[in-house]
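Changelog excerpt: complex records now keep ligands as SMILES alongside chain sequences, and the structure block spans every component. Example after the change:
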Amino acid sequence: MTIRANWNYPTAVRFGAGRIKELAEACKSSGIARPLFVTDPGLVNLPMTKEAIQQLKDAGLAVTVFSDVKGNPVESNVYAGIDQLRVGKCDGVVAFGGGSALDVGKVIAFMAGQTRPMWDFEDVGDWWTRADPNGIAPIVAVSTTAGTGSEVGRAGVITHEATHTKKVIFHPKMMPKVTILDPELTVGLPPKITAWTGMDALAHCIEAYCAPGFHPMADGIAVEGIRLVKEFLPKAVKTGDDIEARGAMLTAASMGATAFQKGLGGIHALSHPVGALYDTHHGLTNAVFMPYVLNFNRPAIEERIARLAAYLGLDRSFDSFVGWILDLRAEIGIPHTLAGLNVDDSRLDEIVAMAIVDPTAGGNPVPLDETAAKAIFRSAL
Ligand SMILES: [Fe+2]
């Protein structure tokens, strides 16, 4: 059998404490003279954000600031941003923030020169080829949380309000030209958000590693990302100003998003509908589902997880790995069951129906049909 595969690796990443000082230079080297600075309402007035905007102005760049971005961004956020981009005659985007600001910033840049509506570019089949690649503005990404890894991804997630579903807008050219990973920008994250977003990064690494398909490079990145989470997530949660731990978690988040081009799986497939229906935090919801999905998938992943456990310095067994996940969850305050998210079985059928058609369901190592999704959800109750 001849194996054929598509492997895509991220972009230029500038990693290290204080490297936000290179933002203006990163814009210039990306061909941006008039950036639209996209962030969220919680960040826009923080000193670190104001300093970044001032830095751009001091360097002679004509900045327009846009921060009308919801926690789960919606279509109108993107279109409002496109309006600002046109008013400011912007020639590129600085996406500064967590997953929401990064996703909206990237989609605004993508839509800058398109003539078709945004939903025409949903990540379905080859719909991305409908886009005019010359109409995509360059992006510089600055991540201020360590979870989604959107700063090294080629897609943005936008909520379709009419159907309460999250849709993925994808294009290869949506990859930021430069990404800045500066751990000093994440020291202010509260312990809970640090824990929840960190568990999202871990879920990306684990699901990518377990997804079927030939992608040894993604597997290698996922495994080392999991090691970084194991060593540094508890430290980052407990000691927020531990720059080494913050840097390791930023890296693990970028690694998770790099690895999950291979696929995700049941954790995300169940977490997406629960998040959409109950407005629970994405990373926290993943963290609750994690051990139940692993146990359900055990027949397909036992040997692979045992190998991973050995790499992590645990006993070479599936049980020792799941044991570590349970200990980690307890240590950083993740609830053990769905009750901790105020989720019960009243919308089980709806959740199961949404989970099995979620775009991530196909990556689960055991086919995620109705029976499977129901069994996992019930175990998580
Ligand atoms: Fe995720």
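The CA atoms of residues 309 and 315 lie 6 Å apart. The chain has two domains: 12-186, 191-380.
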